[in-house]
Amino acid sequence: MNLITEDDFIGIDNDRDKHSIIRYADGSRSVIPRRFFIANWLDTEANFGSLHMGRAVTIGVGSTVKVDNDKQALRMGRFIAMGEHIRFTLNGQHPMRSMSTFNLACFGPGYKEGTVDHHPDMVFENDIWVADEAMFLGGCHIANGSVIGARALVTGGFKTEPYGIYAGTPARLIRFRVPEKVRELLLELAWWEQPMSWIKTHADCFAMDLAQDVGRSCEMLTALKSSLRVHSLKVAA
Hints:
Layout: E1 2-4, E2 9-15, E3 19-24, E4 29-33, E5 37-39, E6 44-45, E7 50-53, E8 57-59, E9 64-67, E10 74-76, E11 80-82, E12 87-89, E13 122-124, E14 128-130, E15 135-137, E16 141-142, E17 147-148, E18 153-154, E19 164-167, E20 172-176, H1 180-189, H2 196-201, H3 203-206, H4 214-236
Parallel strand pairs: 1-7, 5-9, 7-10, 8-11, 9-12, 10-13, 11-14, 12-15, 13-16, 14-17, 15-18, 17-19
Antiparallel strand pairs: 2-3, 3-4, 5-6, 19-20
Helix pairs in contact: 1-4
């Protein structure tokens, strides 16, 4: 498995043979299970496939990515919390428009199979929570702020809406985490792009109930956004 992560990556530690802990210079870390990438249905650890992952991603024990070629990658942003036994199926497509869906070519030379339509990369943006035993099929796209319920099935090519809560088989939108105006401001703020020191400085803002007083929440988020603009101008100067 090829891991592509943040520029300030400083190393990987193994924790009691259950997790690999990816460490960063700013003190943050990401955690993934050992034997995370599995080669198709043989349950052997894959030495191929790509994981693009940012800081502060935690994935529970027993979670696996099933992969059988390099045509798709798993892309994860920052601040993603996932429960145990999550399943990701990157590949696994079969020919659908030919005489058989069976991959006849696996029997060797002389056998042929129909064309397989591969999904694009599987994408998880930022600030996402996934509960235990959820399953994700090829090409799905999980937007910023989304929540995926326990044992939900996210079908191939499905895309969530930002800050939506999804559950069921197949997964469907239940409601949104916060009111629409708050969602808009959160997406404009894109707080996950800020350094860990900025997040710590504004810890009280992160602890605030954004749905209790929408007006006050919007004022707070607008002020944070303005402070970032001022900071950016100072840096540019």
